[in-house]
Structure formats: C-alpha cells, structure tokens
Design a protein that fits this description.
0% of the residues lie in helices and 60% in strands. By secondary structure, it is mostly beta strands.
Length: 122
Amino acid sequence: QVQLVESGGGLVQAGGSLSLSCAASGNIFRINDMDWYRQAPGKQRELVATVSSFGRTNYADSVKGRFTISRDNAKNTVYLQMSSLKPEDTAVYYCKAAVSTTTLRYRINDYWGQGTQVTVSS
C-alpha cells in the first residue's frame, strides 16, 4: 500500500509564512499529480494547488502569488510554501497523490494524507 505523511503545520500570525511537506512511501511505481487541499471548519474541502509529475503547477485564485507548490520526485515528496498568510487560510491541509503501485502499474488510485492544521491568527 501507499502512505502519505504530512508535516509542517502550526500557528502563525497574519502576514507570516509556513511550509508544509508530504512524503509518500510504500510500493510506489509512479506518482502522477500531487495536490494540496484544505478544509476549514464548516466548509467543503477545496483544492489549493496541483503539481504534475513534470512540474506543471496550478493554483486556486485565492492563493495565487502567495503559495508555491513544488515536488521532489526522487523523494516522492510534495511541498507547499505559504507566505503572506491570512486568517482565512486557517484550515486543515491535506495532500493527495495519484499513484500507481508496483502490483497494479496500470491503475491509478488517489491516496490522502492525514491532514495537518494551519492556524493563522489576526
């Protein structure tokens, strides 16, 4: 199976910066897109940023110019650098990876991390 472990959440003041990382492990054959999502209390989970296996990125309008997603394919790790943080960025942040495993190379499944809390105080 595949496991995703996130780290780097915490409490930060508005205007500050925070970095998240998410490492995938297990019987991985290939990782396609890697994403960061977030879910604030009482709201639906939303896509924050995506990075393809070739490094192509996309961002939600609400974070463009403030967040940067990147990945290290050798380490099966995706990062999210967040700056100019706002109170409305407060949420649990989840990583997701589209993975084909060594046992099912032609099937892509989505795997999720456990989530990490980011709290931005005003």
